[in-house]
Design a protein that fits this description.
This protein is of the alpha+beta class. The chain has 2 domains: about 5-20 and about 95-215, no CATH class; about 30-90. The chain has helices spanning about 5-10, 15-20, 20-25, 35-55, 60-90, 125-135, 145-155, 190-200; strands at about 95-105, 110-120, 165-170, 180-185, 205-210, 215. The chain has a 6-stranded antiparallel beta sheet. β1 and β2 form a beta hairpin. α4 packs antiparallel against α5. It is globular, with a radius of gyration of 21 Å. The two termini are about 10 Å apart.
């Protein structure tokens, strides 16, 4: 199956599809969610550390309890923030875009890949995406040393993991268009979708809920 403009436009009009991915798409919408997560982690570590001490000095037990309470409060805060984020996504499904993405570099064993995708008017343009990929593959031909260094750093061989946030490529490198780099894992895709990706020259489809979130489309409805 070819990922045509007609197909992508149809996906963008498919509200049930976008609703099905809303929970995933809401992650990263509220940057402040990192704060309670960090506090919860530190408090959990504190509770673990103080618990051993409290066995010999009971006066420390109150601090263990306080740390546990903080962890619980932080977890509740994260849940509430995530619920609000999902509610906001569901109220604005019309802004969710279906975008072509392109594998750049990666690990064929783990099937985790640095990939790029475009937002804006070029999000369905396979030829445009290929042109940016070609510039990355031939980055040594880039005359701007500073730009060449930025691209090399973005695509250096140290995959960060699935939760790495999308990074905007320098617009002077992408003809003024918004093109993002993100890591995706393709191992969970069904065989048919993997075959589709091969047929589309290593291009696949993501749903972009906001600039900080692009979700891999697992199958074509």
């Amino acid at each position: 199956m070819l990922f045509t403009t007609e197909l992508l436009n149809g996906l963008e009009r498919n509200e049930p599809l976008k609703k099905a991915y809303a929970s995933q798409g809401s992650f990263g919408q509220n940057k402040l969610i990192a704060l309670p997560i960090v506090i919860a982690f530190l408090s959990a570590f504190m509770a673990y550390s103080l618990y051993g001490i409290s066995k010999t000095d009971p006066s420390y037990f109150i601090y263990v309890v306080i740390s546990i309470v903080i962890v619980v409060v932080c977890i509740l805060a994260v849940v509430m923030m995530q619920v609000r984020a999902k509610k906001n996504i569901l109220a604005n499904l019309d802004v969710v875009k279906a975008c072509l993405a392109k594998k750049i570099y990666g690990n064929d064993q783990t099937q985790v890949y640095y990939s790029i995708y475009a937002l804006g008017k070029m999000r369905h343009d396979a030829a445009f995406l290929e042109s940016i990929a070609d510039k990355i593959f031939n980055i040594e031909a880039e005359p701007d040393k500073q730009l060449r260094s930025k691209i090399n750093k973005l695509f250096q061989a140290n995959l960060e993991g699935m939760n790495a946030a999308p990074v905007l490529l320098p617009v002077e490198f992408t003809f003024g268009e918004q093109v993002y780099k993100k890591e995706f894992t393709l191992s969970a895709l069904d065989p048919q979708m993997k075959e589709n990706i091969q047929q589309n020259s290593d291009q696949f489809i993501v749903l972009s809920f906001h600039s900080g979130s692009a979700i891999l489309l697992r199958n074509i409805p």
